[in-house]
Amino acid sequence: MKAMVLAAGLGLRMRPLTLLRAKPALPVLNRPLLHWTMERLARAGVTHVMVNLHYLPETVTDVLGRGRRWGLVMRYSDEPVLLGTGGGPRAVRGLFGREPMLIVNGDVLFDFDLRRLLAVHRACGARATLALRRNPIPYAYSPVVVDRSGRILSIAGRPRRARGPVTMFASAHVLDPALLDRLPEGASDSVRDLYIPALAEGAHLQGVRTEGAWYDFGRPSLYRDAQLRLLPGRGPDRALVDGKARVAATARLRRSVVGSGARVASGARVERSVLWEGAAVEAGARLSGAIVATGGVVRAGDRAEDVIVLPAAALETGGEAGGRVERRGDMAWVELR
Description:
Radius of gyration: 21 Å
CATH architecture of the largest domain: Alpha-Beta Complex
Distance between the termini: 39 Å
Number of domains: 2
Largest sheet: 9 strands, mixed
CATH topology of the largest domain: Spore Coat Polysaccharide Biosynthesis Protein SpsA, Chain A
Protein backbone atom coordinates (compact mmCIF):
# COMPACT_ATOMS: atom_id res chain seq x y z
CA MET A 1 0.00 0.00 0.00
CA LYS A 2 1.29 3.45 -0.94
CA ALA A 3 0.47 6.73 0.76
CA MET A 4 1.20 10.42 0.38
CA VAL A 5 1.65 12.81 3.29
CA LEU A 6 1.02 16.48 2.56
CA ALA A 7 3.72 18.44 4.38
CA ALA A 8 4.43 21.42 2.11
CA GLY A 9 2.22 24.12 3.65
CA LEU A 10 3.45 27.40 5.10
CA GLY A 11 1.80 27.02 8.51
CA LEU A 12 0.96 30.73 8.67
CA ARG A 13 -1.66 30.36 11.40
CA MET A 14 0.90 28.69 13.67
CA ARG A 15 3.44 31.49 13.67
CA PRO A 16 5.79 32.25 15.33
CA LEU A 17 6.35 28.52 15.98
CA THR A 18 6.50 27.82 12.25
CA LEU A 19 9.22 30.41 11.80
CA LEU A 20 11.40 27.74 13.41
CA ARG A 21 10.06 24.52 11.84
CA ALA A 22 7.53 23.38 9.30
CA LYS A 23 4.22 22.66 11.01
CA PRO A 24 4.39 18.86 10.48
CA ALA A 25 7.76 18.85 12.25
CA LEU A 26 6.57 20.62 15.41
CA PRO A 27 7.02 18.56 18.59
CA VAL A 28 3.86 16.98 20.00
CA LEU A 29 4.26 15.23 23.36
CA ASN A 30 8.03 15.38 22.81
CA ARG A 31 7.96 13.76 19.37
CA PRO A 32 7.69 15.37 15.91
CA LEU A 33 4.09 15.41 14.72
CA LEU A 34 5.08 13.42 11.63
CA HIS A 35 6.32 10.55 13.81
CA TRP A 36 2.77 9.99 15.04
CA THR A 37 1.52 10.05 11.44
CA MET A 38 4.08 7.51 10.24
CA GLU A 39 3.17 5.14 13.06
CA ARG A 40 -0.48 5.24 11.98
CA LEU A 41 0.45 4.60 8.36
CA ALA A 42 2.71 1.65 9.19
CA ARG A 43 0.00 0.21 11.44
CA ALA A 44 -2.44 0.37 8.50
CA GLY A 45 -0.15 -1.69 6.26
CA VAL A 46 1.39 1.17 4.28
CA THR A 47 4.85 0.30 2.94
CA HIS A 48 5.77 3.26 0.69
CA VAL A 49 5.30 6.93 1.57
CA MET A 50 5.70 10.05 -0.54
CA VAL A 51 6.08 13.34 1.36
CA ASN A 52 5.85 16.66 -0.45
CA LEU A 53 8.08 19.54 0.65
CA HIS A 54 8.19 23.30 0.22
CA TYR A 55 8.57 25.36 3.41
CA LEU A 56 11.62 24.68 5.63
CA PRO A 57 12.00 21.27 3.96
CA GLU A 58 15.07 20.26 5.94
CA THR A 59 13.06 20.33 9.17
CA VAL A 60 10.81 17.65 7.67
CA THR A 61 13.50 15.45 6.17
CA ASP A 62 15.58 15.67 9.37
CA VAL A 63 12.82 14.10 11.47
CA LEU A 64 11.81 11.45 8.91
CA GLY A 65 15.03 10.36 7.26
CA ARG A 66 14.44 7.36 5.03
CA GLY A 67 11.58 5.99 7.08
CA ARG A 68 13.44 2.92 8.31
CA ARG A 69 12.38 3.24 11.95
CA TRP A 70 8.81 2.51 10.85
CA GLY A 71 9.72 -0.06 8.20
CA LEU A 72 8.70 2.38 5.47
CA VAL A 73 10.27 3.32 2.17
CA MET A 74 10.28 7.14 2.14
CA ARG A 75 10.47 9.42 -0.89
CA TYR A 76 10.21 13.18 -1.15
CA SER A 77 8.67 15.49 -3.73
CA ASP A 78 10.05 19.04 -3.80
CA GLU A 79 7.59 21.78 -4.74
CA PRO A 80 9.40 25.03 -5.61
CA VAL A 81 5.89 26.49 -6.03
CA LEU A 82 3.14 25.27 -3.73
CA LEU A 83 0.79 22.94 -5.60
CA GLY A 84 -1.96 22.50 -3.02
CA THR A 85 -3.81 19.44 -1.79
CA GLY A 86 -4.76 18.40 -5.33
CA GLY A 87 -1.75 19.55 -7.32
CA GLY A 88 0.76 17.94 -4.96
CA PRO A 89 -0.59 14.40 -5.47
CA ARG A 90 -1.24 15.15 -9.17
CA ALA A 91 2.46 15.94 -9.69
CA VAL A 92 3.54 12.47 -8.48
CA ARG A 93 0.52 10.55 -9.76
CA GLY A 94 2.71 8.34 -11.97
CA LEU A 95 4.42 6.82 -8.95
CA PHE A 96 1.20 5.33 -7.61
CA GLY A 97 0.19 3.10 -10.51
CA ARG A 98 -3.36 1.76 -10.51
CA GLU A 99 -3.80 0.69 -6.90
CA PRO A 100 -5.74 2.92 -4.46
CA MET A 101 -3.59 5.53 -2.77
CA LEU A 102 -3.99 6.94 0.73
CA ILE A 103 -3.52 10.67 1.29
CA VAL A 104 -3.23 12.26 4.74
CA ASN A 105 -2.50 15.79 5.89
CA GLY A 106 0.83 16.01 7.67
CA ASP A 107 -0.19 18.87 9.95
CA VAL A 108 -3.02 17.09 11.80
CA LEU A 109 -2.73 14.76 14.79
CA PHE A 110 -5.12 11.85 14.45
CA ASP A 111 -5.65 8.42 15.91
CA PHE A 112 -8.36 6.56 14.08
CA ASP A 113 -8.41 3.28 12.20
CA LEU A 114 -7.03 3.81 8.70
CA ARG A 115 -7.44 0.09 8.01
CA ARG A 116 -11.22 0.47 8.19
CA LEU A 117 -11.06 3.39 5.77
CA LEU A 118 -9.10 1.25 3.32
CA ALA A 119 -11.42 -1.75 3.76
CA VAL A 120 -14.55 0.29 3.07
CA HIS A 121 -12.98 1.80 -0.02
CA ARG A 122 -12.09 -1.59 -1.44
CA ALA A 123 -15.54 -3.00 -0.66
CA CYS A 124 -17.82 -0.21 -1.89
CA GLY A 125 -16.32 0.54 -5.30
CA ALA A 126 -16.20 4.32 -4.77
CA ARG A 127 -13.83 6.54 -6.74
CA ALA A 128 -12.73 8.05 -3.43
CA THR A 129 -13.44 7.38 0.25
CA LEU A 130 -13.08 10.16 2.80
CA ALA A 131 -12.59 9.84 6.56
CA LEU A 132 -15.32 11.86 8.27
CA ARG A 133 -15.99 12.86 11.84
CA ARG A 134 -18.54 14.77 13.85
CA ASN A 135 -18.44 18.46 12.97
CA PRO A 136 -18.26 20.32 16.31
CA ILE A 137 -17.76 23.77 14.75
CA PRO A 138 -19.83 24.04 11.52
CA TYR A 139 -18.70 27.61 10.88
CA ALA A 140 -15.02 26.57 11.02
CA TYR A 141 -15.15 23.36 8.98
CA SER A 142 -17.07 22.79 5.76
CA PRO A 143 -20.03 20.45 6.29
CA VAL A 144 -20.06 17.11 4.49
CA VAL A 145 -23.56 15.60 4.09
CA VAL A 146 -23.96 11.85 3.59
CA ASP A 147 -26.92 9.55 3.11
CA ARG A 148 -27.72 6.58 5.35
CA SER A 149 -25.26 4.36 3.49
CA GLY A 150 -22.44 6.88 3.92
CA ARG A 151 -22.45 8.02 0.30
CA ILE A 152 -21.44 11.67 0.12
CA LEU A 153 -24.16 14.00 -1.18
CA SER A 154 -22.54 17.40 -0.80
CA ILE A 155 -19.44 19.16 0.49
CA ALA A 156 -19.76 22.76 1.70
CA GLY A 157 -23.24 22.86 0.18
CA ARG A 158 -21.99 21.91 -3.26
CA PRO A 159 -22.76 20.83 -5.92
CA ARG A 160 -26.17 21.41 -4.31
CA ARG A 161 -27.57 21.53 -0.80
CA ALA A 162 -28.57 18.17 0.62
CA ARG A 163 -30.20 16.79 3.72
CA GLY A 164 -28.71 14.10 5.88
CA PRO A 165 -26.16 13.57 8.67
CA VAL A 166 -23.65 16.43 8.71
CA THR A 167 -19.99 15.61 9.28
CA MET A 168 -16.61 17.09 8.38
CA PHE A 169 -13.62 15.88 6.39
CA ALA A 170 -10.99 14.44 8.74
CA SER A 171 -7.97 15.01 6.46
CA ALA A 172 -7.47 11.40 5.30
CA HIS A 173 -8.80 9.88 2.10
CA VAL A 174 -8.30 6.97 -0.28
CA LEU A 175 -8.75 7.38 -4.00
CA ASP A 176 -8.23 5.81 -7.36
CA PRO A 177 -5.05 7.53 -8.66
CA ALA A 178 -6.68 7.81 -12.11
CA LEU A 179 -9.07 10.32 -10.56
CA LEU A 180 -6.15 12.73 -10.29
CA ASP A 181 -5.91 12.82 -14.08
CA ARG A 182 -8.98 15.08 -14.00
CA LEU A 183 -6.84 17.82 -12.49
CA PRO A 184 -4.74 20.17 -14.62
CA GLU A 185 -1.03 20.40 -13.99
CA GLY A 186 -0.13 23.02 -11.41
CA ALA A 187 -1.84 24.13 -8.23
CA SER A 188 -5.27 22.80 -7.29
CA ASP A 189 -7.40 21.82 -4.32
CA SER A 190 -8.57 18.24 -3.83
CA VAL A 191 -12.02 19.21 -2.54
CA ARG A 192 -12.84 22.27 -4.63
CA ASP A 193 -11.27 21.15 -7.90
CA LEU A 194 -11.67 17.37 -7.72
CA TYR A 195 -14.33 16.08 -5.36
CA ILE A 196 -17.04 18.71 -5.83
CA PRO A 197 -16.93 18.50 -9.65
CA ALA A 198 -16.93 14.69 -9.41
CA LEU A 199 -20.04 14.83 -7.21
CA ALA A 200 -21.72 17.12 -9.72
CA GLU A 201 -21.21 14.44 -12.36
CA GLY A 202 -22.71 11.74 -10.15
CA ALA A 203 -19.47 10.02 -9.13
CA HIS A 204 -19.60 7.75 -6.11
CA LEU A 205 -17.69 9.28 -3.21
CA GLN A 206 -18.00 7.43 0.07
CA GLY A 207 -17.67 8.68 3.63
CA VAL A 208 -16.52 6.68 6.65
CA ARG A 209 -17.33 7.96 10.12
CA THR A 210 -14.26 7.74 12.34
CA GLU A 211 -13.77 7.65 16.09
CA GLY A 212 -10.67 8.62 17.97
CA ALA A 213 -8.45 11.64 18.46
CA TRP A 214 -8.27 14.36 15.81
CA TYR A 215 -6.59 17.69 16.40
CA ASP A 216 -6.16 20.45 13.86
CA PHE A 217 -3.45 22.80 15.09
CA GLY A 218 -5.01 25.93 13.64
CA ARG A 219 -3.30 28.28 16.09
CA PRO A 220 -0.71 27.97 18.87
CA SER A 221 -3.25 27.85 21.71
CA LEU A 222 -4.94 24.81 20.11
CA TYR A 223 -1.52 23.18 19.72
CA ARG A 224 -0.81 23.72 23.43
CA ASP A 225 -4.25 22.66 24.63
CA ALA A 226 -4.29 19.45 22.58
CA GLN A 227 -1.09 18.27 24.23
CA LEU A 228 -2.38 19.06 27.70
CA ARG A 229 -5.52 17.02 27.00
CA LEU A 230 -3.42 14.11 25.76
CA LEU A 231 -1.09 13.97 28.76
CA PRO A 232 -0.90 10.47 30.22
CA GLY A 233 -2.15 9.83 33.73
CA ARG A 234 -4.64 11.67 35.86
CA GLY A 235 -4.67 14.54 38.30
CA PRO A 236 -3.56 18.18 38.11
CA ASP A 237 0.13 17.44 38.70
CA ARG A 238 0.59 15.06 35.79
CA ALA A 239 3.36 15.99 33.39
CA LEU A 240 5.34 14.44 30.55
CA VAL A 241 9.05 14.93 31.14
CA ASP A 242 11.64 13.61 28.72
CA GLY A 243 14.33 11.46 30.32
CA LYS A 244 17.03 13.90 29.21
CA ALA A 245 15.35 16.96 30.72
CA ARG A 246 16.66 18.43 33.96
CA VAL A 247 14.05 19.47 36.50
CA ALA A 248 15.20 20.72 39.91
CA ALA A 249 13.80 18.95 42.95
CA THR A 250 12.22 22.19 44.20
CA ALA A 251 10.62 23.05 40.84
CA ARG A 252 6.93 22.31 40.41
CA LEU A 253 5.28 21.00 37.23
CA ARG A 254 1.53 20.86 36.69
CA ARG A 255 -0.06 19.60 33.45
CA SER A 256 2.98 20.37 31.30
CA VAL A 257 5.26 18.87 28.67
CA VAL A 258 9.04 19.14 29.05
CA GLY A 259 11.27 18.16 26.15
CA SER A 260 14.71 16.61 25.87
CA GLY A 261 17.51 18.77 27.26
CA ALA A 262 15.08 21.33 28.68
CA ARG A 263 15.98 22.83 32.06
CA VAL A 264 13.64 23.88 34.87
CA ALA A 265 15.59 25.46 37.72
CA SER A 266 14.97 25.52 41.46
CA GLY A 267 11.80 27.18 42.67
CA ALA A 268 10.33 27.52 39.20
CA ARG A 269 6.62 26.80 38.63
CA VAL A 270 5.46 25.52 35.25
CA GLU A 271 1.72 25.09 34.74
CA ARG A 272 -0.23 24.21 31.58
CA SER A 273 2.85 24.83 29.46
CA VAL A 274 4.91 23.18 26.73
CA LEU A 275 8.70 23.32 26.74
CA TRP A 276 10.46 22.25 23.57
CA GLU A 277 13.80 20.48 23.66
CA GLY A 278 16.55 22.77 24.91
CA ALA A 279 14.18 25.33 26.45
CA ALA A 280 15.12 26.84 29.80
CA VAL A 281 13.20 28.15 32.81
CA GLU A 282 15.45 29.83 35.33
CA ALA A 283 15.16 29.91 39.11
CA GLY A 284 11.93 31.25 40.53
CA ALA A 285 10.29 31.88 37.14
CA ARG A 286 6.55 31.32 36.75
CA LEU A 287 4.95 29.91 33.61
CA SER A 288 1.23 29.51 32.97
CA GLY A 289 -0.15 28.51 29.58
CA ALA A 290 3.16 29.26 27.86
CA ILE A 291 5.14 27.66 25.06
CA VAL A 292 8.93 27.95 25.26
CA ALA A 293 10.63 27.04 21.99
CA THR A 294 14.09 25.58 21.53
CA GLY A 295 16.61 28.21 22.60
CA GLY A 296 13.97 30.13 24.50
CA VAL A 297 14.80 31.21 28.06
CA VAL A 298 12.45 32.49 30.75
CA ARG A 299 14.72 34.47 33.03
CA ALA A 300 14.90 34.17 36.79
CA GLY A 301 11.86 35.64 38.50
CA ASP A 302 9.95 36.36 35.28
CA ARG A 303 6.24 35.54 34.90
CA ALA A 304 5.27 34.19 31.47
CA GLU A 305 1.53 33.76 30.99
CA ASP A 306 -0.12 32.83 27.67
CA VAL A 307 2.95 33.74 25.64
CA ILE A 308 5.40 32.06 23.31
CA VAL A 309 9.04 32.57 24.28
CA LEU A 310 11.65 32.12 21.56
CA PRO A 311 14.98 33.64 20.50
CA ALA A 312 14.41 37.12 19.08
CA ALA A 313 16.65 36.22 16.14
CA ALA A 314 13.86 33.95 14.83
CA LEU A 315 11.76 37.03 14.11
CA GLU A 316 14.47 38.65 12.04
CA THR A 317 13.67 36.42 9.05
CA GLY A 318 10.98 38.93 8.06
CA GLY A 319 8.02 36.67 8.79
CA GLU A 320 5.02 37.87 10.77
CA ALA A 321 5.15 36.86 14.42
CA GLY A 322 1.43 36.08 14.58
CA GLY A 323 0.80 38.16 17.69
CA ARG A 324 1.90 41.15 19.73
CA VAL A 325 5.66 41.01 20.39
CA GLU A 326 7.58 42.11 23.47
CA ARG A 327 11.38 42.13 23.20
CA ARG A 328 13.27 41.09 26.33
CA GLY A 329 16.94 41.23 25.53
CA ASP A 330 17.74 38.40 23.14
CA MET A 331 14.32 36.82 23.72
CA ALA A 332 10.96 37.57 22.13
CA TRP A 333 7.69 37.09 23.99
CA VAL A 334 4.82 36.71 21.54
CA GLU A 335 1.19 36.86 22.57
CA LEU A 336 -0.25 33.33 22.39
CA ARG A 337 -3.48 33.26 20.37
